[in-house]
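Hey all, quick one. A colleague (J.T.) asked me to put the nicotinamide-adenine-dinucleotide job into the tracker so the inputs and the structure tokens live in one place instead of scattered across chat threads. No bug as far as I know, just bookkeeping. Sequence used:
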Amino acid sequence: IVNSVELQPATITVTGAAGAIAYSLLFRLASGEMLGKNQPINLRLLERTEAMQALQGVVMELQDGAFPLLKNIVVTDDADEAFKDADYTFLVGAKPRSKGQERGDMLKENAAIFKEQGRSIDRVAKSSVLSVVVGNPANTNAMIASYNAPNTPRTSFTAMTRLDHDRALAQISKKVNCQVEDIDRFAIWGNHSSTQYPDLSHATIRGKWAWDLIKDEDWIYNKFIPRVQQRGAEIINARGKSSAASAADAALRHMRDWVLGSNKWVSMGVCSEGWYGITRGVWTSVPVQCFGDGKFGVIRDIPMSKESASRINKSIDELLQEKSMVKDLLPNQTLRGV
Ligand code: NAD
Ligand code: LMR
């Protein structure tokens, strides 16, 4: 039986395409790991002019992979060309931090990139485009991009905190000796930074309250939470470079769940609408459920302990500080719907 239904290719833009994360991401996109083995794709790759030669090498490798689903590759240093008719964008291109720096230290160097790219996405991408910001500081960069894209729904720009989420699941599964997929109702709140709050207070393992199974508050407060908060730095200290393959994996899962749906809670950095008293208009990580086709719902009305609220507030304060540092890059103060 011949399957005669040929789907139209989806257009995926990846920025920072000659960088370390993209080197793990692109080949997995080409092999159909994001949209499935029947969905052809076109790749549009954006880089700085100086990195175009290196990017040509990556393109040669993509060609050599002979991926049946990969129909076309565009390589450019022009944002409008890269984002033209994009369905999905991975905004990865930005400088990573080095040993001893915080992610927020990258704000001055990276923030301007997201102003330009937000404007470009608004101009030339499909109106249904979905964008995930990976480049740090991811939450504030997603906010900058969205503020500069006034005709694109604010819910179309998300910041990646999925890596923190997955790091936490891995730590929990090791602690209680369960499968990662047994864990649900876990959440990362706040900034993708060392103030983030990895929240176990609602988590379940095979339907049972995780707190009761872990039975070790010392581990939760003094090992688990700081470890997840500091995992990026731990990797930089060990590798001398920031996480790349795990970041690419998280970006792929983030987008796949956003597009195809998730049957569990996942964490995404999204524009606050004021839930749980979180200031509107900052991009905070929250637990969400994805319904497919770019639709998601923030998990609402879960009880919030004083301890959790105070940890979340600390991270939101940091996001507000970052916002005040980039106010010159936020021209449209009245964001649609905020
Ligand atoms: P990298 O230095 O290997 O690659 C970044 C690439 O971006 C470079 O090739 C650079 O030329 C390119 N670039 C810079 N400015 C650009 C622009 N304006 N347009 C297009 N391309 C541009 O870095 P990496 O390891 O791939 O990391 C990329 C970013 O992702 C860093 O900011 C890093 O901190 C961040 N990161 C975020 C997470 C997360 O969980 N959110 C995880 C890991 C890394
Ligand atoms: C990470 O969490 O690994 C990335 O954000 C890289 C970093 O600077 O920590």
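Adding what we noticed when we looked at it: The chain has two domains: 10-159, 162-325. The two ends are 51 Å apart (CA to CA).
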